[in-house]
Every structure is written in C-alpha cells, then in structure tokens.
Amino acid sequence: MKPYVVAALYHFARLPDYAELREPLHAVCVDAGVRGTLLLASEGINGTIAGERHGIDAVLAWLRADPRLATLEHKESFADQLPFAKLKIKLKREIVTMGVPGVDPARLAGTYVDPQQWNTLLSNPDVLVVDTRNRYEVKVGTFRNAVSPQTDSFSEFPAYVARELRDQKQRPIAMFCTGGIRCEKATAYLREQGFEQVYHLHGGILKYLEQVPEADSLWQGECYVFDDRVAVGHGLRPGQTRRCEPCGAPLLPDELSSEDYDPGIHCPHCIAQLTPERRAMLLMRREQRATSG
C-alpha cells in the first residue's frame, strides 16, 4: 500500500459563516500533517488534500461533525510521495467559479447517475453528453461520444449554453467533470434555465475510473488532476501525462518526445513565446537544481 492518501472532496451547503471556519480547519489540517488546497465559500467546500491515513481521516471527521457537511463525500487515491508542497485554505465567492449569482446546487441539482449506470447514457444516441471541463483537461482524456464546450474556464460555460444548447431544452443532457463539482453546478444552472432532463456523473470521472473495470470502460485517455501526479488512469493509477514546468500545460507522450520539449525550459505550447532572457534564466535554474540535487 502506498503511504499517502489523496482525498478529493466537495460539498454544496449553505455556510454563511465560512470565513470563521478557516482558522480552525487550518489548525486541524496542520495537526493532522495534511497538505493540499481547500476552498471555502458561502456555497460550501471544495478541494484536494493529501496525507497519511490517520491525518486524512481526522480532517474528514472534523468536517463531517458539522451537520451541514455530514453527508460530504470524497474520492481517494494513493501516492508514494505527498503531491502537495503546502497547505492552503482559501476564502472564495464560489467554490467553483461560474460567475452567475444565485445558482444553488444544494437546492436544484440534476439527477445523479452512478458510475455503473453511466455507460447506458453514453451509449444512448438521444442523450447529449457534455464534458464540463476546460479544453486542456479534455485534451488529456474524455468519454467516448462526449462533446467539449472548448472553454478555458468554467465561467465561460453559461455562454456555451446560450450559444449551443438554447434549442435543446427538451433533450436529455448528461454532464461530467473530474470529481463531480463542476457538473453538479452546471446541472443546477441548466435547470434554472428551463432544461428538463439533466443528469450528472456521481463522483465524477475519478469515481468512474475507480469503480468501473477497464474492460467495461468507455473512458479514453487519462484524467487530468490538479496535483503533482498531473493525470491518473483506470484504477486511479498515476498516468503518463506530464506538466510543462514553465507554462503549466499538460503534455502527452508524443509531446514529451517532441524536439520542442526541453524539460524545465519549454514545450511545444510555450517555445514560441520564449525570449532569450527567459531561456537563460530557466537554464541557470535547471543547472542550479542539478548541482544542488
């Protein structure tokens, strides 16, 4: 068993006192030896943390002791090293930024579909399957037959709905995302806009990859994650995707073998913008790391 537990979690709940939760939550995480990032807002909590088994259990128990978070769910995977260098607990307007006031998933979310039933929706030609993630995430992997809105941020999703879905309010629409939070909020937004048959993948891609055998899976590629693992595959095993350190772009195996990829210096996505001055600085930094390491 790998020594570190990685727990992705979120829960929509009314937390008008969210700012007051920050310091005690920070203290609990520090005492538990847990790192990662958690976001608090009046609409709930969202984030990913990592630590040893006892530490993760202690933080989750503390959160669930609040009646408003009693039904909080989380997804687990495992790592040989802590995938986070620091602990960050941030106060936000939204735990996932859509930028539309009044959207309330705690009141008006769509219908959950468990991973075991998700393939039925994917295989139904009458169902429009929408990947609510951003284009750089979709590039790493997505479900067969899924449509990408080609967004660069979740705040662009309402414009996609207005542009592409306005005439499909009677059509069944199934949405998914990494851990479930973006698609849950997206379903609430669609329902407020008058869409009638709206579904979302319970637990997100991570739960699907954990529970559905690879032989039965309709997932293609890997799933981008927001920590040092970069991506995971079936069984939540660490994937082959890497991240360009200077620009942050996820890099697939063919990009890692490209002549435009030089680790720590540039990749095919940022080489055109690399100035001689920045190249010299990055080369110096790489040499310093090699010497000190």
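the 2nd protein, sequnce then structure:
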Amino acid sequence: MVNRPNVCLIVMDTARAQSALPTENPGVMPNLESFAYEGSTFTNAITTAPWTLPSHASIFTGQYTSDHRTNAGSLSFDPEVVPLAARLSEDGYETAAISNNTWISPEFGFDTGFNHFQRGWKLTSEGVELTDIVRNNDTRTGQLRAILSNLTLTDFPATVVNALYNRFYHKKYDYGAKLTNYRTKEFVSKTRDEPHPFFLFLNYLEPHLEYDPPKSYRYEHKPKGASATDLDSVNQEQWEYICGNVSMDDADFRALEALYEGELSYLDYRLGNLFEWMEEEGVLDETMIIIVGDHGENIGNHRLMDHQYCLYDTLLRVPLIIRYPDSVPEDTTVQKLVEARDIYPTVLDACGLNAPEKDEVSSHSLLECSPKNPSTTEGRDYAFAEYLVPQPDIEQLKNRAGSAERADHLDSLDRSLRCIRTEDWKLIKASDGRMELYDLESDPEESEDVKDTHPEVVSELSEVLNSEFGLVKKWDREQFNEMSGSTRSQLEDLGYI
C-alpha cells in the first residue's frame, strides 16, 4: 500500500439507488455488485439536491446548497470553502477531471483545482467553439466570414476536429463512457507524474435522458409482454409529459425504465472494464474508489419525469459504494443515514488531511461509518436536501402547457423546497407554505402524506429544519445571459433549458 492513496471519484450521473444498487436491483449492474463485495455499500445515502449543478458542488465542498449557493439562481461555482480538487492539489496530488455533463465544466467554475480537465463533448481541449463564432449570423456566407475572421491558423485544426466530433460522433454510440475510459487509462498510465498520488474525478452521463443504450443492451431488460417497438417508440420528452401534452400509462413507464436500466447495464460494462484494467496495472488496491450517484430520476413517479421540482427519494437516495482495502472493510452494508456531501471529509480523511472546521462543512468521514460490525455504525440522525430554484423556469413550461388545468399544476411546482429526513420519516416544506410528511418505514414510495395524523412528528422535524436553515423562502433566479451559445446548445440537448 502507498502511504497516501490515489483517489478515484466516480459519479454515475442520474443513477438512483432503487435501480442501481445491487442490493435492491440485482442483475442490472453485475460488475458493480462484484465491486461492492470488495468494499462498503451505503444503502441510505442522501444527496443534498435533486440535480447536477448543486449536488456536485456539495460533493466538492461538503456543504449544502444554501452554503455554497451554486444552483439555478446562481450558476457559478465559486465557494468560499477550498474545493476538494484544489485542497488535494495543494497537498501534492495531481488532479484530473473527465466530465460528460455540461454543467460540470470550466464555464461554471468546476475546473477549480484540477491540473487537467477534459470535457466529454470535445475531442481536444484546444480550439474555440464554432457555435459562439457563428451564433449572430443567419446565412452560410456570414457564418463563413465570421469563422475566417475569428479563427487563427493555430486554432483552426482543433476547432474543426471538435466540431466534426460533436456533429458526427459524440452521442452516436454512447454518452462518453468509452472515451472516458480511454482518457482515464491515458492519464493513469502516461500523462500523470508517477511519483505523485492522483485524484481523478469521472462523471459518466449514460443513465441521463435520453435513454439510448447501445443495441446490445437496449432490450436486455424489456418487460414481459412488451415488444422492441414499445421501447423504441416510448415518449422521452419529459417536459411534454409534465406539461400535459403527452399521455403515458404504466406500460409506457415500464418501457422507459427498461431503457434506463439498459443504460445502467452498459455503464456497468464500462466500469467493469476500467476496474479490470486498474487491477492489471497494479493501481486498483492503491486507489480509494468512490462510486456515487449525484441524484436520481423520476420515471413517472409522482407524476414527474426527469429530476426536477421535488425532493422525493426517487431523486435523493443515491447509490454509494467505497472500495479501499487499506481502510474500508469488504462485503459490508451500512444502513445508517449518510449524505453525499460526506464524501468531502472522507477523501480528506483518507489522504491524511482535515476538513475545514466550519459548521457548514461536513466533518462526517465515512471511514468512521464502516467498521467491521456495521450494526454499531454511527450514522446521521438527520439528512437534509434543498431545491432552491426551479429548473427549467416554470414560465417556460407554461408556454408549452397543453391545457389551462395543466398550467395550474405547473404553478404548483414554482416554489423552493427543503426537506429533513430520518431513517423513518421525511418532512418536505415549501416556500408557499405547503408541507408533506411521509412514513418511510411503512411507505417507502412516499405515496401517502400523513402530516394530519402525525402533528407531533411534523412539529419536531420542522423545528430541526428551521434551526438548520431558517424559514423556506423563494429564491430569485438569474438569467442565462452569460452562457455561451455552445453551452446553451449542450444543455438544451440534455433537457435543462
């Protein structure tokens, strides 16, 4: 073993616990199941926010959204706390990131502390964005003139290569997993400075809408009685469904979930390939590997698709598995409550560093939560999550709504949310004054609001939630006017705007 471990933090973007955890959905991710036997699985890991931007910011800082303030109302990641990569870089780690989600990119500040940052939608980090150059020109002649006047000979080759890659190859086979594995192998075996330990962050986008697994995985989880056509023709326009323009029944959502699980199975294949290679290279046991979902997904749950507008466990409970033979016991399941932001102090702890002594930063190292006897593990009494600004903006959706009745439903989603969760209960409070209480022990799917029959639980949890964050108030939104055209296009493809 090395004195200071390498660290590989893998985010399975949009992977929810109920679908991705081998303990709950065996057979979908068999390589992850084998991997879990070699480490600790946390079955009650709660993310701090239901979508990518704020949840990643929490993982990188150990903070809640209210503290790092990175959300749809403030798109820049510029925390007061030194982010994880920067902290490790200061201590001699070589840091690298490979991101396939546009939110997690230099444009929004997420390259802070990384010596190397690669974007999955670019074949090379050089060159400029053609979309930004031609955005104000409607004619081909005008676009060509803009390109010739703005591109230097130095920029030209990389710019053209990136444009061709984005147009003809990116997302044609997968959402970047194959290329991410290749780039990871290049970094570990060739690029990095060998004497230094490394911190590697990987964001895999495969489970994200649109669910389009490669052919060999597309029908692997086809429901009994369904046809290939049922899967190929099912609606995947989440906002059209939420706006009431598309009707979907249980069979549609079973087909959609089958495609989602196909994406997970394909990602599992790529992860298995990566772990096998790391073992062959002799770096697997010298590396702490953390696999986590940044948030989950609604696939018809609660009359929603995608991962916005709510704080139900379909979005908040995520897979979390840690493998590091030196410090993490193998074949261990931890059922106690933990938070995804606990990854921040966990990595620092493993690397011999202390988390900042600030109340708003987690000091809850998960290394202390996985002893040989998990029944004695000390977890959290409470987990919290926030959804501060709706994304996309509700007014955008109302313009698409198919009926006035559905527009009224969309109005009900236009609010800020906070929740407090114990192992048995969840209380959700909204900025419009509404509250929901769920008995998770008897109703894990959160289908029956029981606030009226358990006022004492509402009072207790509400007091703790208000003490932690104050009253829930509606947050303001900034416009997307500082976003480049290429980034806007990428986020539109992902369904965010």
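Residues 6-121+170-380 form a domain with the Alkaline Phosphatase, subunit A fold (CATH 3.40.720.10). Residues 232 and 255 are 9 Å apart (CA to CA).
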